[in-house]
Specification:
heterotrimer; A mainly alpha; B alpha/beta; C alpha/beta; B: alpha/beta; Rossmann fold; FAD/NAD(P)-binding domain; five-stranded parallel beta sheet; 23 helices; disordered N terminus; C: alpha/beta; 2 domains; four-stranded parallel beta sheet
Amino acid sequence: MSHEKDKLFAEAKTPQPVTREESRRDFLKEVMNMQGGEKILECIQCGSCAGGCPTRFAMDYSPMQIIKMINLGMKEKVLSSSTIWVCSSCYTCATRCPRDVSFATLMMSLRNKAIRENLVKNGAKLNFHKYFFEVVNKYGRLHEPELLVKLLDKTDFRSLRSNASLGLRLFKKGKLQIRAPKIKQTSWLCTILEKTNEKESQ
Amino acid sequence: MNILLRKVGGSMSQKPSIGVFICHCGGNISDTVDVARVKETIGSIDQVKVAETFEYVCSNPGQEMIKKAVKEQGLDRAVVASCSPRMHLDTFRQVVKSAGMNPYFLEMVNIREQCSWVHDDKAKATNKAIALVRAAVQRARYLEPLTPKNLKVTESVLVIGGGIAGIYSALELADKGYQVYLVERNPSIGGHMSQLSKVFPTFDCSACILTPKMVSVAHHPNIKIFTSAEPIAVGGSSGNFEVKIRVKPRYVDLKKCIVCGECAKKCPVKKPSSFEENLVQEKAIYVPFKQAIPNASVIDKDYCLYLTRGVCGICEKFCKGEAINFKQEDELMDLKVGAIIVSTGYSLMDPKLVGQYGFGLHPDIITNLQFERLMLQGLHKPSTGEVPKKVAFILCVGSRTTTAEGCAYCCKIGCMTAIKQALLLNKTVPEAEPWIFYTDIRAHGKGYEEFYAKAREHFTTFVRGRPAEVVREGNSLIVKAEDTLLGKHIEEPFDMVVLSPALVPNKGAKELADMLGIDLGPDGFFLEVHHKLRGVETKREGIYVAGTAQGPKDVRETTMESMATASKVATFLGKGEISVSPEVAYLIPKRCDLCGTCIDQCPTRAIKKGKNEVIIDPISCIGCGICVPICPKEAIDLKNTTEEQLIAQIKGIAEGEETALRIIAFVEKMTAYGSADLGGQSRRSYSPEVRILRVPSIARLGIKHVLHAFAAGADGVIFVEGDDSVFREDKLRERVIHFKKDLGKFGIQSLRLQSTTTTLPQYEKMLTLFDDFVERVKKMGPITREKREEVKKYLEGDKIVA
Amino acid sequence: MKYAFYPGCSAQSTAKEYEDSAKAISKVLDIELVEVPDWNCCGAIDAVYAFKPLYSIALAARNLALAEKMQMDIVTLCSACYFTLSRTNKILKEDSGTKSKVDEALESAGFNYNGGVRVRHFADVLLSDIGLQKIKEKVKVQLTTLNVASYYGCFLVRPPDICNFDDPEHPMRLDELVETLGASKVDYYGKTRCCGGSLGITDEEIMLKMSKDILLNAKNSGANCMATACPLCHFNLDARQKDIESRFDVKINLPVLHFTQLIGLAFGIEPKQLGLHRNCVSPRKIFPLTVANASKAGKSAADRNL
């Protein structure tokens, strides 16, 4: 406890600039080259995005604040925020933004960035994207039960129970896809995966 | 000396006698340029009778030296190589004039701002100076005597738009003694100011300060008002415009109407009142508003039963003054005026374009202008008639918006209007709760910051956050926003929501601009010539702009601007005549076949179809030269930048073995040239291989001139056009693409031609381009002699038709 | 009218009834849906994109390449697929760097896409290409007892430069369809509010709250059923409704139909053919009212057994 306080007092005495390791412009430039980040300097911080965001209540930083932080080069804070993972891609923000900033698209790009740079704090989210990809790459289509099974935390009894009850409900209605929907031409999946991996690293 | 008897259209038939005067400029030139060597080299050119250097040519002794040389040596042309012509061209023209020479026989060469001040290598700077002076000498051989025309002006003014801006300009000019025609589209003058309740920050009653002015306009002996009227055609030229006005029928005789109101009482048709911003219904026959000028009824032809279906006509029966006349028709009239003022005002952007606020889906979601009307009707909710207590003001609805439906600019008055309305609400409704949702509060004018403080003192709630949406829930309107200062979500119910829409130019601005031959800016408002120094002038002399037609502003700025406009008009018309430059386009009639290509291209509509050939109006012509290269028969030329003069100058610069690499930069004479001078004043060095040739506009140039440049010895050609030029950037680009294709036919790399535009202060961009271009051409190497011969042969075959 | 049909992954599993009802009404309206042969997952908004962006674009582009070969517009039932495929078109059109990389990847697998395929949502095909007039002509049963809250969700109307089926703030086209079928439309807040979409798997709580708000608003505005145009939205609002009720201790019991099922009912098609037995919140309570009307029009009594 007092160790924390000492740290705060020390920081207050010699205020540090907002970013330390990298130059502020570096992260900003990276973001400007991402899908959705092209017009980020246009933002006038009006807050329309934050006001209409349906998942704002679950975010640690509002969409508007995320943009401010990007502008200040606060890479770590941005990529490890809950905001980019709780965004439901509803595009309400992008539709209403008076400066034509596509914030929802930027969220998708930032997720990818966080994954690439190993800055994902939420393991469940990382796994979701990883396993989704794996399942789709295996069959060419999504096999939801397989995805869910992979994601299940086998130690969380409550979630296991509720998932099982949901599964049963769906099964009764014939909505549970038991057999994996494999496409015929699965070979091309390997080909394009190889090729796109190669292109990504270029 | 028979200098003045030399024939016009001078070619080299008589041997010219040229005097060249090179200035030391107190070391400013001579420290870098070896003026003695320049004198020696130039002095040996044919027909140069006199070549002198002098410490300060612009000084009194310097001027005397020139005069003496002209008189005693029988010179008929003079070349002064010194500072920029933008400094002393007029000075030296006066000097030669006083010695008996036509001032247009004087040529100036810029060897200071564009030579000695910007090059460090003395040898190269001197070589460049020699090339520039040689070019001027060669051009001088083809100079002709020209005389500016003095034109009598019509001492009357047309004011288009009868709002506060038009009213103020009209009164100022009428008081100065000018005849003013005030043309207004609506059935009454007054504009939007007549709809306002009180103005900020003084809380003056808007109608109380406007109406006396409106009455003055009505009674002023020098002002004639036309309402329900619009200009439909503009002809003539600056100082003598001919404007056709269409006056739409009112169906009520202005002289007979006594405003008794019987007609409206009996009229069976109701329609939304535009003065009341559609909040209230009025009859199809109505008086625009109580203080309307002219104070008379008018019939709305789209709603009147008699005019649409031939039935009813009750008003006519009951009219006490026998003023109703259904037979009235459009009236056309011709006005002759010396100057025109555009004061057509603004409209509010349709808030439906910002759908999230639900305008149009609930009667209590209104605009700030509608709120003004409600204040004057007795503040109430349009839905139930109850007095609203909790009112949300949402700012920036459509303003500061870069998406397609919005306006990128700030509306300037939204913040202050909302603050004013919040304070008025507090005054009129006990326990009122105004909330203002803002992104930034702009309180820029005199007394505005204090006004903002007052609103806070009166407990107006300010929320920093542009709302996401307005939701209708039962009887309430819920505003959803984020308080960005607290990072908190807000969902507040309100009785009424007032939106601050963006301001847009009034309908028909584009058509009017085209009619007048002036420009609109990228924001759609009428464009002034210079942001700081010429804010009320348009690109066309004699046409001015005032008020919100030029851009969003408040009443104070509008009235001040209107008076500035009136002053400018008075200056323009004041002398009774204006001087028109003789550097205009002219026709070589026997070559013209009336193809009409030039007519559409002229930016000021100076060319018209005649009987056997086109007619170029020398008054409207601004001398840009765009018509010259596009004429397929080479039937047009430009005085003082004729084909002969231009080609001689190009050859003069490009020839000579002084340097390995030669680049000609054609630079537009006002903005771009001024920018280069600015670069010189800042002593910004650049490659001396670049030689600047001043042209009226890049529009003047055809592929022929580019080829001449290459044939004569240039290895690269640059075009620099002013950003505010009549030769629009897209047209310039189009032309350059064509040129590059043509160059390809000769095997000349397209990269040897580059073009750019510039604003006055942007010299860094232009000079960096010069340096980069020189590097690029260096790498490409000079053009081979064979290639030059090839181009020369082609040009010689392409003789001008005699 | 022929279209390249892209069912999407959900249509074969959790929203089988959506595909069935779509096919049933297509028969009545003379729409030929030719399934894109061996189509693959579109990438599901950013499910794959977040992990492997270039791969995900190539994934989506393959479907477009296949449709291009068929020389038809690609029509999808799922709003998320509508968005993902449309966005792919936009990226390939505007980002030449990405385009060249994706082209190379596709070529290496033997595919070729030239950007010529238009992506349509099935609702747009019905309303723009067929039109309300033709639909009205096929209505046999007026759904007069239904107060339908049309739910547009996100991707039918946003973002407006990619998905522009209707106005993003106040869409009315599905409501107009509802009225054409004889039902009453319900105006409520939330018709374009996000249901929680893909958050259902990793952030269940958030998704349940978002869907709850929509359902309650619809119900409190007088709706007795909802119509959706996306299998993911339908799943959240219908299949998870029971979880919403228990998590937030509210009673909702609002049947949620795919809009194609609604049209099918109005066309007098057997509920079983429309897969209505698969809807989790039983639409039974609204059936007797409509089926009773249907029996007036002469349908067999067997339809009443569900």
